[in-house]
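User: Run a structure prediction on this.
Assistant: Running it now.
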Amino acid sequence: LLVYVRARGRDRLGLGAVPWFVAAWATKQVMFIGLLACIADLLVEDRGRPSRAVRFAVAGWGPILLLFGLLTLWSRGGFWTATVLGTVSFGHADPPWVIFSNAELFFGSPWNMLMLVLAVWAAWLRPGDRLLGLYLGIGLVLAIAFDANLPRFFPPMLAMAILVPLLLEATRSIWQLRSAFAFALVLTFGVHQVYEMRSLVRERVLTLHEGNERLALAEAVRRHTSESGPALAQDVGMLLSADRPVAMADPLVFSILAGNGAWSADSLVEGVRGRRYEAVILNRPVEELAEHEWTTLWIYPARQALLDHYRLAETVTCGENWRFLEPTRFIYVPQARP
């Protein structure tokens, strides 16, 4: 963006920014928002005449699409599956209520909301910051459109982090207004750090000690599995804590793939029928697995096989709550063969 802005200041098209946009996309695919913002900026400046915007779009999207195609061919479709079908829900993997719940993590924070309001204000007051305003708006809309998972909000958060200091600088001569902004920012940031982040601090800092209750779940897994035996679990971290091999690395991604029709659970179902897994650990009873529950689409096809060939061996409840995980585990082990 900086390379583009400097070039535009010298009345150039800004094509020198293209390699940086390509590198940004190759690093994190969601970072293509900057390229879209520059195209939109050219359209606004030229009052809808598309010639320069089209030139910039071809120069920017050409190498990105070429690189995308080469990586997809080289990986035999794996790059497409991982970056598109495994991250964006085109089917029923993420229903609207899940998208709303994801977006709530961003919009439900007073700190984020204050930053957003001040960033919009900065873009409105400073016409020279139109590009950043477009970057913020396009990034926000597409973040919600693409399932509202937190990484999708990186571009608008970056725009906010640049625009808010620019607003403080612009109001330097109006000390009352600048002081009010600074006070509000310090207050909401304090609330964010002390109150909103308390669950993550507790989970990932305060409870990381010997004897914490999360390790009690791992101990339950060890009671029902051997060191070499494969196990399936929604909570992969629990298997790692139990020092057990992981049969499925990321069930949530496989749920999205299943919802998009990009992955079939046939081999998993056959493994359950053949009792090949020493344990299947779920975050809810197998009877409650539902076809449209987005977090369990990876295991739902094996629901009947689990009922037929596995039995509930133990239910373990942890006394500590996690932001993204249920506290109870249902451990199923193979039934005795007839």
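The chain is about 60% helix and 5% strand.
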